Amino acid sequence: MPVKKSELYSSLWASCDELRGGMDASQYKDYVLVLLFVKYVSDKYAGQPYAPIVVPEGGGFADMVALKGDKDIGDKVNKIIGALAEANELKGVIDVADFNDPDKLGQGKDMVDKLSNLVAIFEEPGLDFSNNRVEGDDIMGDAYEYLMRNFATQSGKSKGQFYTPAEVSRVMAKVIGISEAQSQSQTIYDPTCGSGSLLLKAADESSTGVTIYGQELDNATAALARMNMILHENPTAEIWQDNSLARPHWVDVYRVTTFDFVVANPPFSYKAWRNGFDPENDVYHRFEYGIPPTRNGDYAFLLHIIASLKSTGRGAVILPHGVLFRGNVEGNIRRELVQRGFIEGIIGLPPNLFYGTGIPACIIILDKKGAVSREGIFMIDASAGFIKDGNKNRLRHQDIRKIVDVYTGILELDRYSRLVSTSEIEDNEYNLNLPRYIDTTEPEDLQDIEAHLKGGIPNRDIDDLERYWKNFPSLKEDLFKKDIRPRYSELRIEASEIKSFILGHTEYSEYSRLVFDLFDGWNERHRPQLVELKDRVSPKTLIAELGEDYLETFAPLDLIDKYNLFQHLLIYWTETMQDDIYLIIQEGWEGANKLRLLKGKTKESTDLKIGKLKYKADLIPPDLIINSYYSAEKQAIEELEAQLSEIERQLEELEKEHGGDEGLLEEAKSDAGNVTRGATKARLKEIKEDPDFADEIEVIQSYLDLSNQEAKKKDQISEAQKNLDELILHKYQDLSEEEIIELVVDQKWLKFLGDSVERELEAVTRLLTNRINGLSGRYDNPLPEVFKQVEELSARVESHLKRMNFSW
Fold first, then answer.
1. Which DSSP string do the residues of 643-665 spell out, in sequence order?
2. Domain total of the chain
């Protein structure tokens, strides 16, 4: 069976569990990633001539498997990795972790058990990477990214800097226009490349491929980047370990080498940026526009990047928000960069995205080609678009896509983006702080004094719902009685009826039909793609096509946010569809539908159980089979369960009524103090011939009758469930390809997406209903009416007091 990404990820994270305790995530990542690398290249290249990675004799994963339980496993694993490193010029890259370190891995048997268990996890049949035949599906690269994100999360504030969140990397990759690269001879460079994830995300945007260059100060992190390049099938990428400010590796005499594209996420406000060189006398002339502050390297990296761009080059760099507005020498440098037109755009990001810091950051987009004619800077404030993910924030699919669409289309959206002229920036003394140019605050909901005094709803507030009335023009007239006095209206219906009135309105029904007509059109266009999945189809290309058309399909709807629908599609793809499609491409429809017999102890959930046999359904969940073929049988079981619940309720009531102290069931309890069938039978045997215990006998008999009914009903349910499970099992085996397609494509995939469209439509109704309810309720009791109610209540209180001979 091919590797499912979701199961691969959980298996890899389970391997980390073996190492927790002796070290933190910033250390155990070195062990897990090296084993991942060895396993992958062994599965992929062992025994293959002309492979880009040579797996020498005694230098592969199979050799590690043979060491399980060996008392010298740590030392011998080091030698296996050393042999693989030696054969591929990877010394100092994959051999940085010591598998014979007792301080981290334990002494004696502890080390043997820990490493044996670790190897066993990678030995699982489900992790056979040689089966990865899907074109363009970077399963190992994705697994690497999964691990890096989790390592960064676990490592804490001080050690998460080796990883740029993949979502931010995707934004940067798309806004620098690398998709327009013409050939592999074009270059991309990252002077602080960390684990290389940002470089790879950017390079992946090019259809032709580009040549990759990266430099990283930390030795272990540079090794991670080298492994990452190989796992992403970029073995020729050049990663250099050194300080890119003090000793840039790629230089041309008195200038640094220039590249077509540059991306970077340098350490924020790096204090030791001057170590190792004298910026005032920089031989590469990178600081012509000013020397950054001694204890803050943000502009040092920015100037290095600008110097590293060709005259036609484009770049993107992540920096803290402070670079946009800090003064003194940084303000002077910023003025020089703006005046020369180097800054094309600025994207403000949400706070707490990055693992090394919680402060908000921005992406600065650089473009030398258009610098001379540039008359403004395009700014986006995307700080509100994110989701909480543990203790960090994360950009959603919809946030990424909106940022990219708005930036590449230069779309000016209220409270989100605008093109700011250079003259306006000059008027603000070259302060680029986004709030100066984009006001993201929501308009205040103004209170109307006259409405509070006299009642009615201000027409101004009703007109503010114009986006709804544009789609439902007569609904407005049907909901509101206009001009009860100048500039005020009132509801024609009770507030409790608003939602049902909207749902039943002709215009709302027409809008609902339009929404589902659009969805049905998308289905008709793409269902053939989903049905005709061929071997070696690229799942990533498929979801790109599906997502692109999804956005275009729903773009005409101004009440439903197309990006919300896009988010539903992408989440479902990540959680379900990609595993399904990967499986179908590898195994075909009928092969993918086969139930897997689960053997021995397993953490996998059981979908079907027949006797002692447990089965896992990878493609079609049993509920789909039941709903399509055996709903009557399922309903019969549910009816039996309802009857059982009623019997159990009656038993519980009987016990509550008669099971207490001196109750009629007090003597029918077990030694544990519970009323049981055995104890009641024994008590009945004692007293059944004695007429003095007639009441107790009657209650005990009632209990036993109910208890017998309960047992019988449970047997009926068990038998019915067993019969249903056997029907399901046979149905799985008998399904034709057409039936499988109908169940998966229509009943599983498209139904989920249709349900998500319906949820977004329901949200439209809910928002409009809530707003109208709020306006109605706000002015429902005008002030004179409140005064009148107060007077009436005061009079009633005074009357009561007088009757009790009190006065006030």
1. HHHHHHHHHHHHHHHHSSTT-TT
2. 4
How confident is residue 2, by pLDDT bands cut at 50, 70 and 90?
low
Query: For 343-363, what is each residue's pLDDT tens digit?
Result: 999 999 999 888 767 788 999
* pLDDT(142) > 70: no
Picking from 155, 186, 218, the residue at the C-terminal end of a domain is 155
Do 511 and 622 have their domain in common?
no
Helix (H) or strand (E) segment spanning residue 484: strand 480-485
Its domain, for residue 602, covers 597-630
* CA gap 366, 347 in Å, rounded: 12
DSSP state of 368: S
Q: Are 248 and 215 in contact (CB under 8 A)?
A: yes
Q: How far apart are CA 320 and CA 316, in angstroms?
A: 13
Helix (H, G, I), strand (E, B) or coil at 239: strand
Instruction: Kindly tell me the sign of the dihedral angle through the C-alpha atoms of 140, 145, 151, 153.
Output: negative
- Pairing type for strands 309-320 and 361-367 reads antiparallel
Who contacts 210 (Cβ-Cβ below 8 Å, separation ≥6)? 178, 181, 184, 186, 187, 188, 203, 260, 261
Whole-Å CA distances, 47 to 44, 64, 77, 146, 331: 9, 17, 20, 29, 60
Give the closest residue to 297 by CA, choosing from 378, 218, 243, 240: 243
Q: Supply 621's token pair.
A: 């969940």
Rounded to whole angstroms, how far apart are CA atoms 283 and 300?
14
User: What share of the chain has pLDDT > 90, as a percent?
Assistant: 59
DSSP three-state, residue 179: helix
* 184 found inside a domain: no
Element (H or E) spanning 320, and its range?
Answer: strand 309-320
Flag whether 205 is in a domain: no
**Which one, of 174, 143, 163, lies nearest residue 399 by Cα?**
174
Same domain, 771 and 749: yes
What is residue 535's three-state secondary structure? Answer: coil
Find the farthest-apart pair of alpha carbons in the chain and give their distance in angstroms, rounded.
115
Parallel/antiparallel/unpaired status of strands 376-381 and 343-348: parallel
Residue 312 DSSP SS3: strand
3-class SS at 259?
strand
Domain end position, chosen among 715, 734, 753: 734
- Report the distance separating Cα 495 and Cα 774, nearest Å: 10
Exposure on the CB side of residue 492, measured as CA atoms within 13 A: 11
pLDDT exceeds 60 at position 1? no
Query: Which residues, other chains included, contact 646 with Cβ-Cβ below 8 Å and sequence gap of 6+?
Result: none
Nearest-angstrom CA–CA distance, 104 and 106? 6
CB of 228 within 8 A of CB of 197?
A: yes
pLDDT of residue 133: 47
Whole-model pTM: value is 0.85
Contact 381, 414 (CB under 8 A): no
Q: How many residues does the chain have?
A: 808
One-letter amino acid at 4 equals K
